[in-house]
């Protein structure tokens, strides 16, 4: 007697396709780890302050930063805490973050500290700088000069700040160099808050005189010139600054 064939197995229902969720952090963070995107947000705010695109007192709403960079609030808060630690941002309880607004007394103290620090760094730079490094400073001065004649104010401000950090690097003291970087970011806030529009944050000719003194190996003259340069910068500041009408994205260079 032929064996009866087994009844056919019921067809298995197709397994529902799992919907793929977008990576945390959205499009901006798609190809970046959290550390990379955190550093990118930090540098974006820091450099926007240093180049005077972000004025002191500008609100930095967490929701806006999350949307602009496509990241979570937790990551934005971490960046804002770092910026507050470096005195770039002020965190106000229940009112959110703003770009810090140095007072006139803080302004005096910050410039006083910067003059003392740069005097020490310039003296070390004169002792350590090689001919190649002096030549590199002169190339930097050419870039400054070109930006000045193009009336490219943000680029000019960035190059002027970078000049001071380049001189500091020649001192071969990374700790003092880091302190100067923090002081300069606070000076950028002061310049952004108080300096009249259209003024140069640093005079190109004064930078050139400092480089000439470094090239000659004249430490006393280089220190004297740098101190005079910083005193002029401090005297140029005014007491007010009109509010910017640009969006946060535009001030951060994102739109």
TrEMBL record:
<keyword id="KW-0805">Transcription regulation</keyword>
<dbReference type="InterPro" id="IPR011711">
    <property type="entry name" value="GntR_C"/>
</dbReference>
<dbReference type="InterPro" id="IPR036390">
    <property type="entry name" value="WH_DNA-bd_sf"/>
</dbReference>
<dbReference type="Pfam" id="PF07729">
    <property type="entry name" value="FCD"/>
</dbReference>
<keyword id="KW-0238">DNA-binding</keyword>
<feature type="compositionally biased region" description="Pro residues">
    <location>
        <begin position="1"/>
        <end position="13"/>
    </location>
</feature>
<dbReference type="Pfam" id="PF00392">
    <property type="entry name" value="GntR"/>
</dbReference>
<dbReference type="InterPro" id="IPR000524">
    <property type="entry name" value="Tscrpt_reg_HTH_GntR"/>
</dbReference>
<keyword id="KW-0804">Transcription</keyword>
<dbReference type="InterPro" id="IPR008920">
    <property type="entry name" value="TF_FadR/GntR_C"/>
</dbReference>
<dbReference type="GO" id="GO:0003700">
    <property type="term" value="F:DNA-binding transcription factor activity"/>
</dbReference>
<protein>
    <submittedName>
        <fullName>DNA-binding GntR family transcriptional regulator</fullName>
    </submittedName>
</protein>
<dbReference type="GO" id="GO:0003677">
    <property type="term" value="F:DNA binding"/>
</dbReference>
<dbReference type="InterPro" id="IPR036388">
    <property type="entry name" value="WH-like_DNA-bd_sf"/>
</dbReference>
<feature type="region of interest" description="Disordered">
    <location>
        <begin position="1"/>
        <end position="34"/>
    </location>
</feature>
<feature type="domain" description="HTH gntR-type">
    <location>
        <begin position="35"/>
        <end position="102"/>
    </location>
</feature>
């Amino acid at each position: 007697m032929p064996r009866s064939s087994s009844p056919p197995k019921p067809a298995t229902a197709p397994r529902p396709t799992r919907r793929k969720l977008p990576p945390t952090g959205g499009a901006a963070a798609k190809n970046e780890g959290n550390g990379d995107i955190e550093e990118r947000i930090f540098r974006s705010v820091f450099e926007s302050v240093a180049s005077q695109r972000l004025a002191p007192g500008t609100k930095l709403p967490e929701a806006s930063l999350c949307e602009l960079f496509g990241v979570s609030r937790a990551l934005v808060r971490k960046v804002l805490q770092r910026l507050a630690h470096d005195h770039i941002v002020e965190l106000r309880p229940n009112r959110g973050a703003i770009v810090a607004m140095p007072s006139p007394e803080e302004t005096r103290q910050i410039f006083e500290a910067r003059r003392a620090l740069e005097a020490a760094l310039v003296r070390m730079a004169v002792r350590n700088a090689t001919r190649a490094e002096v030549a590199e400073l002169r190339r930097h001065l050419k870039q400054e000069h070109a930006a000045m004649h193009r009336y490219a104010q943000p680029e000019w401000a960035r190059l002027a700040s970078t000049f001071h950090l380049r001189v500091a690097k020649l001192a071969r003291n990374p700790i003092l160099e880091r302190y100067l970087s923090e002081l300069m970011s606070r000076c950028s806030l002061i310049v952004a808050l108080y300096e009249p529009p259209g003024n140069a944050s640093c005079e190109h000719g004064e930078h050139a005189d400092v480089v000439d003194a470094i090239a000659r190996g004249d430490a006393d003259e280089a220190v004297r010139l740098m101190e005079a340069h910083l005193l002029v910068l401090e005297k140029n500041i005014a007491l007010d600054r009109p509010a910017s009408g640009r969006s946060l994205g535009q001030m951060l260079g994102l739109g």
